[in-house]
Amino acid sequence: MLDPIPVPPSLRDAVIPLTNLLHLHTLPLHIHEVLLSYVFYTLLNAFLAPNLSAYLLPTTYDKFPLRTKLQWNMHVTSFVNSTFVSVAALYVLYADRDRLSETWEERMWGYTGLGGMVQAFGAGYFVWDVQVCAANIETLGVTDLLHAVVALSIAILGFHPFGLYYGIQYALVELSTPFVNIHWFLNKLEKAGSTFQIVNGMLLIVVFACCRLLWGSYLTVVFFRDVWTALHAPQSSWTEYNYAPLEKPLILEHQAPWWLAVMFMISNAVVMSLSAFWFMKMIATIRKHVDSPRSQKIRSD
Fold first, then answer.
1. What are the backbone dihedrals phi and psi of residue 191, each rounded to the nearest 5 degrees, phi first?
2. Among 72, 75, 226, 242, which one is least packed by beta carbons within 10 Å?
3. How far apart are CA 167 and CA 119, in angstroms?
4. Average pLDDT of the residues in 161-183
5. Any idea what the Cα angle at residue 194 is, between residues 191 and 197, rounded to 5°?
């Protein structure tokens, strides 16, 4: 399927020299969506989230310290992005029949305008994420910045193009993020231990384990299998990209460079390691909540 939001030709032509230098050959086709996404999430975090939160929760939000307000606004932005990306990725997987691939060439070099649009909106979000995490590293910590940098690297390098077929499927790991944000919101609203939070926590654990750990691990194996095949291909591949109704197709020659494969493998390993680390922290938090009432009961007995 084609990108429903065509790129302005002047903007596309302006960035082509830089993107060709960086070997990001399909980024000019979606640079407008990266910029739109970045501007939207910047405005959401800086203006919409704080003002809407203060209007809906006047007695709660205004009492938050500055650090909590910063985190609250970021969680609102994260919630909006993860919800949108999850729905968009599911739609692409269901509706975009052009992305169905049977060979490793189609999976590694395949590209559709609609899939590129979702990737671009995700990239714009991670540009914002890196900026905010770097500016507030003392508050947010190194782990959040590392995750933002790695996620942005994966999103941008996909415009080589490289592995967009898998990139859309990797986006499904975001299905767990709305539950993470809801859990955090409930803690700040003094709803910790409520039935709502318990149910949300159970859903969070299940979705996180299925999407980030099981699904992510499976995609890692099959993706690296195709990467290995591409690196040892005896000859290059040619692909024709139809990305907009009124534009000529883009024809590119492909041969997998080792540096790109290594960067993808390292980035993926970091993301999977962080997912396992966060999952263990969630389990530890649940045990803490379960053991606390139990220990109080023992002391009362």
1. -110, 20
2. 242
3. 8
4. 88
5. 85
Q: What are phi and psi of 238, to 5 degrees?
A: -115, 135
CA distances from 33 to 21, 29, 88, 234, 244 (A): 20, 9, 14, 36, 14
* Helices within 22-141 (DSSP H only): 31-43, 49-56, 58-61, 66-95, 104-109, 113-135, 137-140
Closest among 178, 168, 175 to 210, alpha carbons compared: 175
CA distance 73 to 53: 9
Six token digits for residue 76: 């609102």
- For the residues of 95-127, what is the DSSP string, one character each? H-GGG---SHHHHHH---HHHHHHHHHHHHHHH
How does residue 295 score in pLDDT terms, banded at 50, 70 and 90? very low
pLDDT for residue 231 is more than 50: yes
Biggest CA–CA distance in the chain, Å, is: 78
Report whether 241 contacts 250 (CB < 8 A).
Answer: yes
Per residue in 114-144, pLDDT (tens digit) is: 889 999 999 999 999 999 999 999 888 898 8
Q: Is 204 left (phi over 0), alpha (psi -120 to 50) or beta?
A: alpha
> Which stretch of DSSP H or E encloses residue 187?
helix 177-188
From 23-27, 59-63, 146-150, 263-267, the region with the lowest mean pLDDT: 263-267
